[in-house]
Amino acid sequence: MRRVVVLVAVLGLPSCAFAAKPAPAERQAPVMMFVGDSFTVGSGPVPPWQTYASQTARLLGWQPIIAGAGGTGFCNAGRAGRTFQRSFEVELAWRPAPDLLVISGGHNDRRWSPERVRGAAASLLAEVRAHWPETRTVVVGPIWMGEPPKKAYGVRDAVAEAARAGKVSFLDPMRGTWPRDAVLPDGVHPTLAGHEGLAAWLAAELR
């Protein structure tokens, strides 16, 4: 049996002519992380992807990562058994540094002294700064959809003082007022419309 040998030569072409072209790099959306309570993670009929945190990221064109649990705060561990600092440690700190970190809350800390709240907020901010020194951090004070009790102002002021001492921005949602349709029948948590209003306010402040 005769063997037939076929030689194929490609002339005039560079050696890499048949290499696959790399796909163009896609523009990555900036990442914003949140640590918060039930206002941030969702409650009642409002799921996590419709909270003010998710909607703020959507308005800004950013990618949200939301941590925390209902009933928690800077001092208050709630049913989840962890404070904001612990939520940061177990849910966020192991991830790559975000472009922006929003720490939002204090509503559940009204039973604690302002001194304890200030110290806990300062401790969390110090840990964030040591862990992610280049990450922009914003602190949002307690959210009250109705008339805040007197103790809420002490918590807000304590959190604001910790933010100023830590040289980070402080935003105060207690300065605004919200319509009746923004509050669920429990008188505490936002409706979907309430979350939309909070998102519009926060997105405007962050811009």
From TrEMBL:
Residues 34-196 form the SGNH hydrolase-type esterase domain. It comes from the Bacteria. Residues 1-19 form the signal peptide. The keyword Signal applies. It holds the Pfam family Lipase_GDSL_2. The keyword Signal applies. Keywords: Signal. CDD domains: SGNH_hydrolase. This is Lysophospholipase L1-like esterase. It comes from Nonomuraea rubra.
